[in-house]
Design a protein that fits this description.
4 helices, 5 strands, alpha+beta, 20% strand
Length: 158
């Protein structure tokens, strides 16, 4: 999953480098363009959040997160523990829409057993997906998920 984000971030950085022109700097100022990247763990609401309240106050935390992201104005946001559930909807999409950003979401829970149909059936039954997301103020023209080799523990999809 981390390799997936590295590839997306590297691609976005390369694209931005092609379309940014060097600014003329005043004497004593740095002329290099800046790319503001922020990473944040959302602390998802739990696998059973499609059915029960978990006490993690996701909605309150989400509002505070959006306010702070607006204040910080990052160009790229990498989210961990981003979730989609019956109760809260697609959380990374909600953040992206609130900020006017593009978004790519890669749910890790759809890869728990490595059996696509089984994994999708489980996530649909419990009404919960969790994974990582990339949000960008710049257009995301393509994305791809690279599955890493499976770990020894069967339920660790990394």
């Amino acid at each position: 999953m981390l390799r997936h984000f590295f590839h997306i971030l590297l691609g976005l950085t390369a694209i931005l480098g092609l379309f940014t022109s060097p600014a003329t700097a005043e004497p004593g100022q740095d002329a290099s363009p800046r790319l503001r990247v922020l990473t944040y763990n959302l602390l998802h609401d739990g696998g059973w959040s499609g059915f029960f309240e978990s006490g993690t106050h996701l909605e309150e935390r989400l509002e505070m997160t959006i306010q702070e992201l607006r204040r910080l104005q990052p160009d790229i946001i990498a989210l961990q523990e981003a979730s989609e559930s019956r109760k809260h909807g697609n959380v990374p999409q909600r953040i992206a829409e609130a900020l006017g950003y593009q978004m790519v979401f890669a749910p890790a829970t759809e890869r728990i057993f490595g059996l696509s149909l089984v994994d999708k059936l489980i996530t649909a039954t419990i009404g919960f997906k969790e994974g990582s997301a990339i949000l960008s103020r710049y257009p995301i023209t393509a994305s791809e998920v690279y599955d890493l080799p499976r770990c020894q523990r069967r339920l660790d999809p990394r």
